[in-house]
């Protein structure tokens, strides 16, 4: 079953930006869309700020029992080098 985490933020120009992180089959995919755009942008590699925000979102959801222990444990391995793949498996994250 897919796991999805969604959050919004404002960009430098004050526009609302929505970010979605979806885990399916052990792989994470991050996409974003600014309020005035119609199409979603898939990030390859994911943006560092988005990955750090995802880690924070999962930690906060886990405290409220809204995120799985697998998601929280997985994000504990996230130390992002340059050139991170768009879709990461659990074993790939553990090897970073």
Report on the structure:
With about 100 residues, the chain is an alpha+beta fold. The protein has one domain. Helices cover about 30% and strands about 30% of the residues. It has helices spanning about 50-65, 70-75, 90-95; strands at about 5-10, 15-25, 25-35, 40. The protein has a 4-stranded antiparallel β-sheet with strand order 1-2-3-4, with helices on one face. Strand 1 (about 5-10) and strand 2 form a beta hairpin. Helix 1 (about 50-65) runs antiparallel to helix 2 (about 70-75). The chain is globular. The two termini are about 25 Å apart. About 15% of the residues are buried.
Question: What is this entry, summarized?
Answer:
The protein is α+β, with helices and mostly antiparallel strands and 96 residues long. The protein is 29% helix and 28% strand. It is globular.
Summarize the SSE layout with pairings:
Layout (H helix, E strand, L loop, with lengths): L2 E8 L5 E9 L2 E8 L6 E2 L5 H16 L5 H7 L14 H5 L2
Antiparallel strand pairs: 1-2, 2-3, 3-4
Helix pairs in contact: 1-2
Q: What is the CA-based Rg, rounded?
A: 13 Å
Compressed to H and E, one letter per element, the order equals: EEEEHHH
Structural class: alpha+beta
Indicate the low-confidence ranges by residue numbers. none
Average pLDDT, rounded to a whole number, is: 76
Count of alpha and pi helical runs? 3
Strand order of the largest sheet: 1-2-3-4
Number of DSSP strands?
4
Helicity, as a percent range = 25-40%
| C-alpha termini separation | 25 Å
Number of domains: 1
Oligomeric nature of the chains: single chain
In one word, what is the shape?
A: globular
Largest sheet: 4 strands, antiparallel
């Amino acid at each position: 079953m897919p796991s999805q985490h969604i959050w919004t933020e404002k960009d430098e120009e004050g526009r609302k930006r929505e970010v979605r992180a979806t885990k399916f089959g052990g792989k994470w995919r991050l996409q974003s869309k600014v309020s005035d755009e119609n199409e979603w942008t898939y990030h390859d590699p994911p943006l560092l700020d988005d990955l750090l925000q995802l880690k924070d979102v999962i930690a906060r959801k886990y405290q409220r029992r809204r995120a799985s222990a697998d998601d929280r444990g997985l994000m504990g391995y996230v130390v992002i080098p340059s050139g991170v793949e768009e879709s990461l498996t659990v074993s790939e994250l553990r090897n970073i």
